[in-house]
Design goal:
The complex is a heterodimer of chains A (about 325) and B (about 260). Chain A has about 325 residues and is of the alpha/beta class. Chain A contains 11 helices and 14 strands. The longest helix of chain A has 16 residues. Chain B has about 260 residues and is an all-alpha fold. Chain B is globular and about 60 Å long. The two termini of chain B are about 30 Å apart. The chains are: A alpha/beta (about 325), B mainly alpha (about 260). At the A-B interface, helix 2 and helix 3 of A face helix 1, helix 5 and helix 11 of B.
Chain lengths: ~325, ~260
């Protein structure tokens, strides 16, 4: 039985905004599954439906074997949810936050106390346990969030953008935590708009774009679907990049060319064989090459192929 | 059983948060005392208007005697009306979503806040009655009278706290909660006998006030405090309890609307 089973899920908000437009995917028990996509792709809405916070407009979803609409109570007993916006009560201490969360899952007495202490230790919050969460750093609050999601040893843990807004150091700590949880056999569904995060953490992932899934598979499968390698070229004279683009497009082995900034990315069948050919063609056209490199396709290339537009992470302008 | 446990845990969370704001606690204590002193002075001469409270006792008993139960209700109303702001804070900080994804009883999420508002209301009413007695008022209704004041204040507080929380869930905007509650609080105050004797009210206000829950609470509290035992008190308390229950159910139902909209 799948840990998460989603079939034709749709969510249309009042006002006609279609956030989710027919999602289907399934997550196996013990798997780390990522929903990858830019902001506004419908990832958070999907997670909100799966955690029973939001009612779907159409479609079905089962989590831990129970329907999220008709058996929402059963679902809530078995899941942990770490929202994108922290759910920490900042007026309460770390210990109080965890204790209340446990009490709401009907834990009590010595069992609850020892579980709270265990999680405080595990997430390196023991020394700050009796301080109001208002005094915590962003990374500490995020760790407290995850600890709260785990208090009742859930079957499925939802992590919505677990590292958004964290500094690189806190992010790598969080990645370590996620890997450790995965080793413990927990089913994990995480959403992210960081390609690298999905690549690093997920066993399988679905690329979400405009409320639809455009590709599903393991990171290697997805990259493998893009046959060949990517040759990236930088010219000595940047202003001639478009000339170079025409030259590269004219080569037999090149299946597509993307220009981003001053760089050209040519997708080729066999990198080692293509590089000398491409360099010779550029030289013949009188274009001096400053730098050339060869890479396996990244998830970024997968995204480009699946959606037809380049991936934009936060900070870059996505609005045309 | 789970409902009661959840309510208690959520109530304790709010109590802890309140106790960590000493300035808030001090203001909550000083405010009602100020009302009694200010209104007691301002409207002192009202008792001399002919026709004021036919049952007003001898002139030696001041306006404070008349005012104390009314101010208890007013404080309950003003305190509870903005209870939804706390819930909005929880919505904005993601706390409510975190709680809604647990098996917690939906009713308890509201009940915890109502209990919190009711406790605050009763403590403030107690302070008001003590100050009023120091200024010469006498609890002529004895202990049952004082308990009637507390009960009327708590029920009205619970009703308005529920209404305010429902509004917070439906509108999800602070501005809306403030605007709607301001719109309701003052008119319902003045359409009651809180500061003016019923006998001196214009006919139409007297008519309207019969359907005003604030007036039910004021009348029950005052009759209780004055020791005017009457069956009216029980009727008003029953009406208030029904009103509070309806508001509580409305607030709990608002969660499903919130879920659809989110």
């Amino acid at each position: 039985m799948a840990a998460i089973e989603v079939e034709g899920l749709r969510k249309t908000y009042a006002g006609g905004v279609e956030a989710v437009r027919g999602l289907s995917f399934s997550v196996r028990p013990g798997e780390v599954f990522a929903l990858l996509g830019p902001n506004g792709a419908g990832k958070s809405t999907t997670v909100r439906i799966l955690t029973t916070l939001s009612a779907p407009t159409a479609g079905q979803a089962r989590v831990a074997g129970f329907d999220v609409v008709s058996q929402s109570r059963e679902v809530r007993r078995r899941i942990g949810y770490v929202a994108q916006a922290s759910g920490v009560d900042v007026t309460a201490t770390g210990c109080e936050n965890l204790t209340l969360q446990g009490q709401l899952f009907r834990l009590s007495g010595a069992a609850l106390r020892s579980r709270v202490e265990e999680l405080l230790d595990l997430f390196q919050l023991a020394s700050a346990a009796d301080r109001p969460a208002l005094t915590y750093s962003g990374g500490m609050r995020r760790r407290l969030d995850v600890a709260m999601g785990l208090i009742h040893r859930p079957e499925v843990l939802f992590l919505d953008e677990p590292t958004t807004g964290l500094d690189p150091e806190s992010r790598s700590v969080m990645w370590k935590e996620v890997r450790r949880l995965a080793e413990g056999g927990l089913t994990l569904l995480l959403t992210t708009h960081y390609l690298e995060e999905a690549d690093q953490l997920a066993q399988r992932l679905a690329i979400v774009d405009g409320g639809r899934i455009v590709a599903t598979g393991t990171p290697d499968e997805l990259k493998g679907q893009l046959r060949g390698d990517v040759v990236s070229v930088e010219l000595a004279v940047r202003s001639r990049t478009s000339e170079a683009e025409l030259v590269l497009r004219g080569q037999e082995d090149v299946s597509r060319v993307l220009v981003d900034g001053g760089r050209l990315y040519a997708q080729v069948g066999h990198g080692a064989r293509a590089v000398p050919v491409l360099l010779a063609a550029l030289e013949k056209a009188g274009l001096d090459v400053a730098q050339v490199s060869l890479a396996r396709p990244s998830l970024e290339d997968v995204y480009l192929t699946a959606t037809g537009h380049a991936y934009r992470e936060e900070g870059e302008s996505a609005i045309a | 059983m789970e409902f009661l446990q959840d309510t208690w845990h959520l109530f304790m969370r709010l109590i802890r948060a309140t106790m960590r704001m000493p300035v808030f606690v001090i203001i909550s204590i000083v405010q009602p005392v100020l009302w009694v002193l200010l209104f007691g002075q301002l409207f002192k001469s009202v008792t001399t208007i002919p026709g004021f409270e036919s049952h007003a006792h001898a002139q030696s008993i001041s306006y404070v005697q008349f005012l104390a139960p009314g101010i208890s209700i007013m404080t309950a109303l003003f305190g509870a009306a903005y209870s939804g702001m706390g819930l909005l804070g929880d919505i904005d900080r993601g706390v409510l979503d975190r709680l809604l994804a647990t098996p917690v009883s939906r009713g308890a999420l509201i009940a915890g806040r109502i209990l919190h508002a009711a406790v605050q209301v009763i403590l403030q009413a107690a302070i008001i009655l003590v100050v009023a007695c120091l200024l010469g008022a006498r609890p002529l209704g004895g202990l049952p009278g004082i308990l009637t004041v507390f009960l009327a204040a708590a029920l009205l507080g619970a009703a308005f706290a529920s209404f305010s929380n429902a509004l917070a869930l439906l509108a999800r905007r602070q501005e809306m909660v403030i605007a709607v509650m301001n719109f309701i609080v003052l008119p319902t105050t003045f359409l009651s006998s809180m500061i003016m004797s019923r006998d001196l009210m214009p006919q139409w206000i007297r008519g309207v006030s019969r359907f005003n829950p604030v007036n039910w609470a004021v009348t029950a509290a005052r009759d209780g405090f004055q020791g005017e035992a009457s069956s009216d008190i029980l009727i008003y308390l029953a009406l208030l309890a029904s009103f509070a229950l309806i508001c509580g159910i409305l607030a709990t139902l608002s969660f499903s609307r919130y879920r659809k909209a989110m």
